[in-house]
Amino acid sequence: MSTGQNLTWNLGRVKIQTAHTWKLVFEAIGGGAAVSHIAIDDVMLGHTECPQIGACNFELDLCSWKNVLNPKLDSMDWDWSNGQTPSSFKGPEVDNTMKNPQGHYMFVDFEALRDKDAAWLLSERLPPTKGSCLAFYYSTNISEQLMHGVLKVFRYQVDQESVTWEAKGTQSKDWRLINITMESSTVFQVGFKAVKSNQAEVGYVAIDDIVYYPGVNCRGVQTDGAVWGKTHVQLPCTILHQCMHIVGDSQKTEN
Hints:
This protein is mainly β. It has strands spanning 66-67, 79-82, 104-109, 118-122, 129-140, 151-157, 160-166, 172-184, 189-195, 204-213, 243-247, 250-254. The strands form three sheets. Strands 1-4-9-6-7 form a five-stranded antiparallel beta sheet, with no helix packed on it.
């Protein structure tokens, strides 16, 4: 891969398949600049296929998603838990993936936050796109009068956040599917932000089963490159347990 000028850490994935004895080699080739460097860190070798970019069902861990470690951006973390975990901080009784108390999800308990506190969860860095579909489920038990802005999805780039969606006016403990088409002319990250804007807010907000379809918007239309080979494509079945595809000019969802 060619990284160009980038002073941030990026996540790389490589699928290795061979029937022979092998060893792993990293080769760095300079581009001719007088002062430059290439660095690697946190090398992990797993015995399963590489996860899909930006996707996570949170059953084993946070995948490539991370809590923000910058006190200038947030003051609390998202918690990784399940309905069986004994805790004074409460989340959903069941997750969306397994639909039972053993399944995991990410959540924020608003009783643990102070007024104006915020919790960020950021994706790995994603390549520029003319339209890529972000799909996820969320659940909340906050009263409708206090719902405005408690959960926001935003695009984060060059220390700036641009909100693309926010929950408002409705609430449900049932898991709800949200589809958002993300667009960016530069490398960016997707962020989930839980905000306590009112001291009276109690309850939780939770997310689960995040899937990111690079180069295909939420109408199933190819937007970037020629990876899919056609203009209208069927979005693949994923951990969302659904297939989404175009029927005429409308989107149809099949279980």
